[in-house]
Amino acid sequence: MIDKVKWGVLGAANIAVRKVIPAMQLGQWSRIEAIASRDLSKSQRAAEQLGIPRAYGSYEELLADKEIEAIYNPLPNNLHVEWTTKAVRAGKHVLCEKPIGMTVAEAKLLLKARDETGKKIEEAFMVITNPQWVAVLDMIEAGQIGEVKSVSGHFSYNNQDLSNIRNIRELGGGGLMDIGCYLIFFSRLIFGAEPRRVVSLVEEDSQTKTDTLTSALLEFPTGHATFTCSTRITPYQRVQIIGTKGRIEVQIPVNAPPDQPCKVFLDDGTDLTGRAIQTIEFETSDQYTIQGDLFSQSIRENCEPILTLEESIKNMAVIEAVFRSAKTGQWEVPSVS
Q: Each residue of 53-91: pLDDT tens digit?
């Protein structure tokens, strides 16, 4: 019998209550034992709704719970580093929502905390272990579309609620931090390298000062990546990967549905009307269940998490470079220094 890792959740964020917790409760390696909120009634409601044994009225109480082995941190972006650091120093491993921090300098503080405590920290890019992305990377590695030369991504939604954390700059809101980070992550994953330089355009909301439309061009050693993300246009997601012998299109690259198969399209380019496109379907799965179980398994087996903290900091460096380029109007070089 598997000795399940006992988890606690910091905060009752929508992503935690609606997606991550229910998914992790289906896992073979994970058990949600406690949830905390600064509003005790809120954590109690979530605990009752989801069948979680314990509810706390402060984050400190949760971190003091000696039975809890791992923490899921879905707090606002500006609290990621602070509470992840507090959690590992309290003896807990941490799965932290993306982005890992607000800046490279801030995120690098986690390296010291990790190394001093010996606890595991992983950024919650759940897409990396989704079966569709595992298959896509395998197809690229096998040369099915030749050498990848172009990656293009789009991710958007329409959120007009100015009180929502995604529209509050001080909390780390804006499209690039919330969803553009995925498109950067995909391009780095596909090319298996870091961009040499980036150039971007950013449109800000006059009231919130958050980026509501961001587009960027990333130059990699062997090709180019482009992306657009927005918080104020029609919801849409897509990633196109074009090589010298074919093309892969990922239909829903980020919010893969947990209740229906994912689809990826493989095209050899012989018929522009699409008759040569091969549709590849994947068995229904929940990427949050997979993510939680693999992190729990890394704890039990004392091995490295799927995504290292060093890789997350590199992703943060590209985010910073995109923001810098929008201000300078010039190419900028990502740096983790």
A: 999 999 999 999 999 999 999 999 999 999 999 999 999
CA gap 230, 249 in Å, rounded: 20
Q: Facing residues of 145 across strands?
A: none
Q: How far is CA 44 from the centre of its chain?
A: 27
Instruction: Decide if 76 contacts 70 (C-beta within 8 A).
Output: no
State the catalytic residues: 98
Could you tell me the CA-to-CA distances from 235 to 118, 155, 220, 227, 288 in Å, in that order? 41, 7, 28, 15, 21
How do residues 18-39 score in pLDDT, each as one tens digit? Answer: 999 999 999 999 999 999 999 9
Q: What is the CATH code of the structural domain delimited by 128-288+317-328?
A: 3.30.360.10
Q: How far, in Å, CA of 241 to CA of 61, rounded?
A: 46
Contact 193, 218 (CB under 8 A): no
Please indicate, yes or no, whether the overall pTM of this predicted structure exceeds 0.90: yes
CATH of domain 5-126: 3.40.50.720
**Per-position DSSP letters for 232-290, written without gaps between them:** EEEEEEEEEEEESS-EEEESSSSS--SSS-EEEEEE-SS-TTSTTPEEEEE----HHHH
